[in-house]
Design brief:
Elements: H1 3-16, E1 25-26, H2 27-31, H3 36-48, E2 52-59, E3 62-69, H4 79-93
Antiparallel strand pairs: 1-3, 2-3
Helix pairs in contact: 1-3
Length: about 90
């Protein structure tokens, strides 16, 4: 991965800031000022890294792809795993 790839991905992330599944950004907007094949490759890498999602929209015989940032949610402990930890701690205290 070279510096151009990193700066292109940063530019894509910046362009997608504030996007959501209800307010996605069209590929055409992301391509402006860049080579389309490079943008599409960077988008696929970001998608494979689970940083962005996409949807292909087909309307009246024409297709377009829209993108948005994923929401990063911190992993939380499940109820059962925390209950097991508490039970083990209580057994150890006895």
């Amino acid at each position: 991965m070279n510096v151009k790839d990193i700066s292109l991905k940063a530019a894509i992330r910046k362009a997608l800031a504030g996007s959501s599944s209800l307010q996605p950004v069209d590929t055409g907007v992301l391509v402006k000022g860049h080579q389309r094949s490079h943008v599409e490759a960077a988008l696929q890498e970001l998608y494979q890294a689970h940083e962005i999602y996409y949807c292909k929209i087909i309307r009246n015989g024409s297709a377009r792809t829209v993108w948005w940032l994923t929401i990063q949610v911190a992993k939380t402990e499940s109820y059962w795993s925390s209950a097991r930890k508490k039970a083990k701690a209580a057994e150890a205290a006895i």
